[in-house]
Design a protein that fits this description.
This is Delta(24)-sterol reductase. Keywords: Membrane, Oxidoreductase, Transmembrane, Transmembrane helix. By secondary structure, the chain is α+β, with helices and mostly antiparallel strands. It folds into two domains: 54-230, 2-Layer Sandwich (Uridine Diphospho-n-acetylenolpyruvylglucosamine Reductase, domain 3), CATH 3.30.465.10; 236-318 and 368-468, no CATH class. It has helices at residues 16-22, 25-52, 55-74, 135-142, 160-165, 173-176, 205-210, 246-255, 294-298, 300-309, 319-323, 333-337, 344-349, 358-363, 366-376, 389-399, 446-449, and strands at residues 83-86, 106-109, 117-121, 126-129, 147-149, 183-189, 195-198, 220-230, 234-243, 273-280, 283-292, 312-318, 377-385, 405-413, 457-468. The strands form three sheets. Strands 12-9-11-10-14-15-13 form a seven-stranded antiparallel β-sheet. Strands 3, 4, 5, 6, 7 and 8 form a six-stranded antiparallel β-sheet that branches. Helix 8 runs antiparallel to helix 16 (389-399). The protein is globular and about 60 Å long.
């Protein structure tokens, strides 16, 4: 057992910026929330206008917008102009990273018009979308059809382009992998003005495997074909309290979705969704979800009664609401800004205005607060092999002592080309969990990725953490 003793951390001096951060809620309530509501109304009207258009008209507009982007690319002089990037302002990006490269010499291409769902093909189970289509927009369009992306990220504002070029994960990633793993093809604008379609088996297959995690450095994404899956109207969510040491919690977390007999593709043993929240070193809640019909949801009283006898709590949530259950609170980030954000009176009076627009939060923070967050605030995704999750939890507790932690597994595929993240050598050798604490899963991916039976996979797990370092 590892030593969980937390080292002594010296106190940090309180500065003026600490008080600005503490009372930032004044600006958020009286300025940011009001403007956010206006922005959300305008976005809603824009989405409504897009929905009224036929698929043929959307395709025609897409082709016209691509021609404009190509024309702009052809105006670039490689010897004088800088690197190609989008014209999107840095503060509009949802992520917390510094977009300093846009402060240097660069060549901008405006892609702001690329925010339409071009087509939803129920026969091929494919949605063709433009890069600025966000999760709220696509779910609103597909859920009434009992369809959804295989991987739907948790926040409404996250876009297809951002999730693909960065890091996209959801509670279903232990089945389907990351968001990029569900993309069937890319339409990419290259720096020389060409527009190519990249798939895993055409002449641009190397580009297909290189685009994920590339942060837009290889080309401009103008559309993507993304896998759809059938869903049901409700999510049957089982909340199970886990108590014990971190290693015991890690073991219970693995047992929630990784059967000890290795029968990983059995839907009776593997839930549709998995995520776990650790609130302290000895307590966590593991949430597993399965799609459920309206008829089953009507009988939820009987299920809840049975669950109480087992020490669990079962609830039925409409699928669309479940997908974005973290949106209004931005996980627990709103609590960091609005210290009273979870109080009943605030939720009653202003809860309908939540969440504050992330871009506005960044635009109104100023340089001092921006630097403060980069130096004293942690929002970090850590990818670790599943069999090392116990060690990882102990390391985070010992080195950072950060809670809560959001823990979510995802399937990692072995691809023909070595990409940004790749299964470690020897992982294909299965090791029985009953006789070892090391998890080794051999997963056949033919039914998921259509790569053939000779590709193996493994799991990674993600620890998502967020904290303001305290001065006391």
């Amino acid at each position: 057992m590892s030593n969980l003793e937390v080292p002594h951390r010296p106190k940090r001096k309180t500065t003026l910026v600490d008080f600005l951060v503490q009372f930032r809620w004044v600006v958020v309530i009286f300025v940011v929330l009001r403007i956010s509501c206006t922005i959300y109304v305008l976005i809603y009207l824009g989405d409504l206008k897009s929905e009224w258009k036929s698929y043929d008209r959307r395709k025609k507009e897409h082709d016209e917008n691509v021609k404009k982007a190509v024309k702009r690319l052809n105006e670039r002089n490689p010897s004088k102009d800088g690197l190609v990037c989008t014209a999107r302002m840095p503060w509009t990006v949802v992520g917390m990273r510094n977009v300093d490269y846009k402060r240097a010499r660069h060549f901008e291409v405006d892609l702001s018009a690329f925010r339409n769902i071009i087509e939803i093909d129920k026969k091929r189970m494919i949605a063709r979308v433009e890069p600025l289509v966000n999760m709220g927009q696509i779910i609103k369009a597909t859920v009434p059809m009992n369809l959804a992306f295989a991987v739907v990220a948790e926040l409404d504002d996250l876009t297809v382009g951002g999730l693909n070029n960065g890091f996209g994960i959801q509670g279903s990633s232990h089945i389907y992998g990351l968001f990029a793993d569900t993309i069937m093809s890319y339409e990419i604008g290259l720096a020389d003005g060409r527009v190519v379609r990249a798939t895993k088996d055409n002449e641009y297959s190397d580009l297909y495997y290189a685009i994920p995690w590339s942060q837009g450095m290889l080309g401009l994404l103008v559309s993507a074909e993304i896998k759809l899956i059938p869903i049901k109207e409700y999510m049957r969510l089982t909340n199970k309290l886990l108590k014990g040491k971190l290693r015991h919690i890690a073991q219970a977390y693995m047992d929630a979705f990784a059967p000890r007999d290795g029968d990983q593709d059995n839907p009776e043993k593997v839930p549709d969704f998995v995520e776990t929240m650790l609130y302290n070193p000895t307590e966590a809640v593991c949430m597993t979800g399965r799609y459920a019909s309206k008829e089953e949801a009507k009988k939820k009283g009987n299920h809840a009664q049975k669950a109480l006898k087992k020490g669990e709590f079962v609830e039925y949530i409409p699928t669309r609401e479940y997908y974005h259950k973290h949106t209004r609170s931005l996980y627990w980030e709103v609590k960091r800004i609005l210290l009273f954000g979870d109080q009943w009176w605030f939720r009653f009076l202003l809860g309908w205005m939540m969440p504050p627009n992330i871009s506005l939060l960044k635009a109104t923070q100023g340089e001092a607060i921006r630097n403060y967050y980069h130096e004293n605030h942690v929002i970090q995704d850590m990818l670790v092999p599943l069999y090392k999750i116990g060690d990882a939890l102990e390391w985070v507790h010992r080195e950072m002592e950060v809670y809560p932690l959001w823990v979510c597994p995802h399937r990692l595929f072995r691809l023909p080309l070595k990409t940004m993240i790749y299964p470690e050598p020897g992982f294909e050798q299965h090791k029985d969990r009953a006789t070892s604490t090391t998890l080794r899963c051999t997963l056949m991916l033919e039914s998921i990725m259509h790569l053939g039976p000779f590709y193996m996979g493994r799991y990674l797990t993600v620890l998502r953490q967020s904290v303001n370092w305290r001065s006391d």
